[in-house]
Structures are given as structure tokens and as C-alpha cells.
């Protein structure tokens, strides 16, 4: 089974995804990690050198591959839903969970983070609000379930995702 996490930068896709995979005994894959292995530098450097469109081309290839490697928990990058082909591929092949977070919460988590290329601007909170406006409808269109991430800790969120998947019959209930 393929479980896919989507959401804005800082929503916890990588952190929650890793713990969720451990709890489920599934491999964990992070599309940004595979992209960095392929380009041989950080995503931030690649954005600066080659631009966003070149990044999106590689991201689309990596997503297509990772949705075909067998059962795993897949953390995507925040912009994975921008391309219709990715939205269609993720929704068709996986059980897609949207980790929804308010831009203000994401700003609190990421204000000291220098590795997210889209947030290296004078007003990152304003940028996060704009990204939310643009992408929230795309995450909703792609996902099967929405999980609110505002207050819960990472381990509580892992439990919430597991409970949601059990209720939906995607996961067997735990004894
Ligand atoms: N539910 C949460 N509560 C508090 N901090 C969180 C939560 N989820 C993620 N974080 C923190 O926010 C930062 C970004 O998380 P990350 O998993 O990299 O997000 P993403 O992969 O969605 O961009 C990390 O420092 C992580 O520890
Ligand atoms: O939102 C985006 O467009 C991006 C989010 C990043 O992943 P995270 O969501 O893990 O930060 C990474 O894929 C790249 O910097 C582009
Ligand atoms: Mg991530």
C-alpha cells in the first residue's frame, strides 16, 4: 500500500511520514531526498542555478518512479501538486493525506530555516499566505483525507493518520 503525504512546506510531511512508516513497518521515501540524490546538490542550490521549472521536471519524474516502487510512505515536496499529472498520479496510485496547516503556524516552524527556496524572501509569512491561497484547493483536489496539524505533536499526528486510515478500511485495525 502507498500512503502519500501532501501539504505546504513545514506541514510535517517529512517528519510525520518518517514516524508513520516506522509505526507501519513500511519503507519511508521522501521525493525531495531522491531529487537531491539525482541532482547532486541541495534543492536550494538547484533552484538558484537552474530555476523552478527545471526542478519541477525532475520532481515529476521522481514522483512517477516513487509511486511505482511498491508499498511505502511517501512524503512529497510542497509543490508536488502544482502539476496536474502529479495530482492524477498520486491520487490514483496512493492513499493521499493532506496535512493542513495555517500559514501562521508554518511561519513559526520555518522562520529560522534557510533551506526552503520559496521562503527566502523579505516577507516569508506573506509568501506562505499566498502559497496557501494557491495550493489549498490543489491539496484538497488531490487528497482522500485532510488532517489538521495546528496543535497536535508529531506522534499524535501519526496516531491521527493511522486512525483515519483504519476507519477508512485502508489499514487493518490494531489489536
Ligand atoms: N506537528 C508539529 N508540531 C511541531 N513541529 C512540527 C510539527 N510537524 C513538523 N514540525 C517541525 O516543522 C519543521 C518542518 O517539518 P518537515 O517535516 O520538514 O515539513 P515538510 O516536510 O512538510 O516541509 C521541522 O522542524 C519539524 O520538526
Ligand atoms: O513548496 C514547494 O514548492 C517546495 C517544497 C519543498 O519541500 P517541503 O514541502 O518539504 O519544504 C521542496 O520540494 C522545494 O523546495 C519546493
Ligand atoms: Mg519535506
TrEMBL record:
It catalyses: shikimate + ATP = 3-phosphoshikimate + ADP + H(+). InterPro entries: P-loop_NTPase (IPR027417), Shikimate/glucono_kinase (IPR031322), Shikimate_kinase/TSH1 (IPR000623), Shikimate_kinase_CS (IPR023000). PROSITE patterns: SHIKIMATE_KINASE. One of its GO terms (cellular component) is cytosol. Pathway: Metabolic intermediate biosynthesis; chorismate biosynthesis; chorismate from D-erythrose 4-phosphate and phosphoenolpyruvate: step 5/7. It is an enzyme of class 2 (transferase). Mg(2+) binds at residue 14. GO terms for molecular function: ATP binding; magnesium ion binding; shikimate kinase activity. Its cofactor is Mg(2+). It is found in: Cytoplasm. Catalyzes the specific phosphorylation of the 3-hydroxyl group of shikimic acid using ATP as a cosubstrate. Monomer. This is Shikimate kinase. It comes from Ramlibacter lithotrophicus. The gene is aroK.
Amino acid at each position: 500500500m502507498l500512503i502519500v503525504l501532501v501539504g505546504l512546506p513545514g506541514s510535517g510531511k517529512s517528519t510525520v511520514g518518517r514516524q508513520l512508516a516506522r509505526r507501519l513497518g513500511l519503507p519511508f521515501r521522501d521525493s525531495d531526498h531522491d531529487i537531491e540524490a539525482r541532482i547532486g546538490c541541495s534543492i536550494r542550490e538547484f533552484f538558484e542555478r537552474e530555476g523552478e521549472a527545471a526542478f519541477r521536471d525532475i520532481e515529476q519524474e521522481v514522483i512517477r518512479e516513487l509511486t511505482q516502487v511498491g508499498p511505502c510512505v511517501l512524503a512529497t515536496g510542497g509543490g508536488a501538486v502544482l502539476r496536474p499529472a502529479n495530482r492524477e498520479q498520486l491520487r490514483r496510485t496512493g492513499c493521499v493525506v493532506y496535512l493542513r496547516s495555517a500559514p501562521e503556524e508554518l511561519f513559526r516552524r520555518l522562520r529560522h530555516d534557510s533551506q526552503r527556496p520559496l521562503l527566502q524572501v523579505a516577507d516569508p509569512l506573506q509568501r506562505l499566505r499566498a502559497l496557501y491561497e494557491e495550493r489549498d484547493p490543489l491539496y484538497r483536489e488531490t487528497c482522500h483525507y485532510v488532517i489538521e496539524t495546528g496543535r497536535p505533536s508529531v506522534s499524535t499526528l501519526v496516531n491521527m493518520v493511522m486512525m483515519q486510515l483504519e476507519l477508512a478500511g485502508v489499514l487493518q485495525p490494531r489489536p
